[in-house]
Amino acid sequence: MKFLIVLLLALIAYVSAEQCSGYTTIAKCVGEGDVCNHDQPCTELLYCNNNGNSVQNGTCVKYAELNQDCSKTTCSPLYSCESNKCVVANNVQNNGTCQSDYQCMGSMTCVSSVCTLGTNKCKVNVECPFGTSCDVSSGNCTTDIAAGQSIPVKADQKCALGSAQNTDGKCVALYSLAANAACNDDSLCDDQLICSAGVCAAIPAATPSTTNCSATACTSYEVCICKGGDTNATSGTCYTKDLTGSAMETRKNSHMDYLNCVNTNKCVLENNLQAPAYSSCADDKCATEWCKFQSDNVFKAVYNPIPESCQRNDPICANNSSNMVSASFSLIVILSIIVASIF
Ligand SMILES: *[C@@H]1O[C@H](CO)[C@@H](O)[C@H](O)[C@H]1NC(C)=O
Ligand SMILES: *[C@@H]1O[C@H](CO)[C@@H](O)[C@H](O)[C@H]1NC(C)=O
Ligand SMILES: *[C@@H]1O[C@H](CO)[C@@H](O)[C@H](O)[C@H]1NC(C)=O
Ligand SMILES: *[C@@H]1O[C@H](CO)[C@@H](O)[C@H](O)[C@H]1NC(C)=O
Ligand SMILES: *[C@@H]1O[C@H](CO)[C@@H](O)[C@H](O)[C@H]1NC(C)=O
Ligand SMILES: *[C@@H]1O[C@H](CO)[C@@H](O)[C@H](O)[C@H]1NC(C)=O
Ligand SMILES: *[C@@H]1O[C@H](CO)[C@@H](O)[C@H](O)[C@H]1NC(C)=O
After folding, report:
1. Which residue has its alpha carbon closest to ligand 4 atom 4?
2. Would 14 be classed as within a structural domain?
3. Within-domain flag for 147
C-alpha cells in the first residue's frame, strides 16, 4: 500500500534559538463520542463539535450526510446546509442548469432554470462565464488574457487559467520559465527551479545532516527540526520543506493535466489551485486529474509521521475507493517539533 505521509511543518518565527519548545506533537486522534480538541483531533469522517473553538473540548461526532438534518450537526465537507438540510450547493457555473439559487456558484441566482448574474455585479471569478474573470472594481466579467500577452494598464483583466502574471505584467504559462528569468512565484519557474530573489534558480544544495541548525541556518528550501522530536533538545537538523527532483516534475505534470482538463471542458475555477466544487463541471470531468494532483502534491516527509487514523483527504478524492490508498493517510496539520532557525 502506498504510504502517504503529509507533514505540514508549521514554522513559528522568533522562537528562541536554543530550544525546541513551543510546538505541539499530535500524538493521537480520537473516535466517535470521545473528547476532542485542537491537540486531539477526531479521526477522518468525524468532526469535533467544539463550536470551532480550538481550545475548548468537544465530542467527536459524525457529519450529517446528503439530505440529513443539519440544524445541530455540521454537513459532511461535500455538502452545504440549506434550510437545515445538507444539499449539494455552489456547483453550477454561469449559464448552467439549476433549480435553486444555492446551486449556483458564488452569488449568482437561478433564473428560468439557469444560473446567472443578471444585473448584479460579480464578486468572484467563478461567477463569470468560462474564459472571463471578475473585475471586482467594476463588477463586470472581463475576458482573460492569454499567456504571452500583457494585461492592459487598466489591469481590469486576469490571466487565463494555467497562467499567471509575472513581474513584467505579462501573463506566463505556469512552470514555463528557465533559470535566470525574472519571476514572482515558484509556480512560474520550470520544475527543478524555484523563484529566488526575483529570478528562477536551482534549489539550494541540501545542508548536510550533520549541521546543527540551532547554530547554523538552513537554506530557504529547508526547515530546522529538533533531533528525534525532543522538545528539550538543543540541536536541530535541516530537512527539505517541499518536494524535490522527479517528484517536483510529477507534480508539475499532474497540475497541468488538471488545468488542461478544466480548460478543455470549459469548467470555471476561481484560480489555478482551486479544488473542484463537489458535483461541479471540474468535479464531473476532472476529478481523476485533481485527485492525482493531490496525491502527487503530498510532501512525503520521513520525519515524525502522524497517526494514520488522523489523516484527512480532500473529500472529493476520499470517497473514491480507488483513491482510498490515501484515505487513511494525508492531511491534517501537525505542529511538529521545529527549532527556529537563527535570526
Ligand atoms: C479537555 O479534555 C482533556 C482530556 O480529556 C482534559 O485533560 C482537559 O482538562 C479538558 N479541558 C477542558 C478545558 O475541559
Ligand atoms: C447558455 O446555454 C445554452 C444551453 O446550453 C446555450 O445554447 C447558450 O449558447 C449558452 N449561452 C452562453 C452565453 O454561453
Ligand atoms: C460594465 O459592463 C457594462 C455592460 O456591458 C457597461 O455598460 C459598463 O460600462 C461596464 N463598466 C465598466 C467599469 O467597465
Ligand atoms: C523536557 O524537560 C522537562 C523539564 O525538565 C521534562 O519534564 C520533560 O519530561 C522533558 N521532555 C522530554 C521529551 O524529555
Ligand atoms: C547546537 O547549537 C545550539 C545553539 O548554538 C547549541 O546550544 C547546542 O549545544 C548545539 N548542539 C550541539 C550538539 O553541538
Ligand atoms: C476514481 O478512481 C478511478 C480509478 O482511478 C477513476 O477512473 C475515477 O475517475 C475516479 N473518480 C473520481 C471521482 O475521482
Ligand atoms: C461516498 O461513499 C459512501 C460509502 O460508499 C456513500 O454512501 C456516499 O453516498 C458517497 N458519497 C458521495 C458524495 O459519493
Report:
1. 232
2. yes
3. no
DSSP characters for 237-266? EEEE-S--HHHHHHHHHHHHHHHHHHHHTT
What is the whole-number distance in angstroms between the Cα of residue 52 and the centre of ligand 4?
31
Q: Kindly state the helix (H) or strand (E) to which residue 315 belongs, with its residue range.
A: helix 315-318
240 assigned to some structural domain: yes
Q: If you measure from the C-alpha of residue 186 to the centroid of ligand 4, how many angstroms do you get, rounded to a whole number? A: 40
Q: Domain total for the chain?
A: 1
104 is a domain residue: no
How far apart, in whole angstroms, are the C-alpha atoms of residue 64 and residue 131? Answer: 36
Q: What is the pLDDT of residues 218-230, one digit of tens each?
A: 898 988 877 655 6
Q: Which residues line ligand 1 (CB under 6 A)?
A: 35, 37, 57
**What is the radius of gyration, based on Cα positions, of the chain?**
22
SS3 readout for 8-40: CCCCCCCCCCCCCCCCCCCCCCECCCCEEECCE
Domain that holds residue 16: 1-32+174-343
Distance between Cα 100 and ligand 1 center (Å):
43
- The structure's pTM equals 0.82
Determine the angle formed by the axes of helices 281-296 and 245-264, rounding to 10 degrees: 180
Average pLDDT of the chain to the nearest whole number: 82
Cβ-based neighbour number of residue 287 at 10 Å: 23
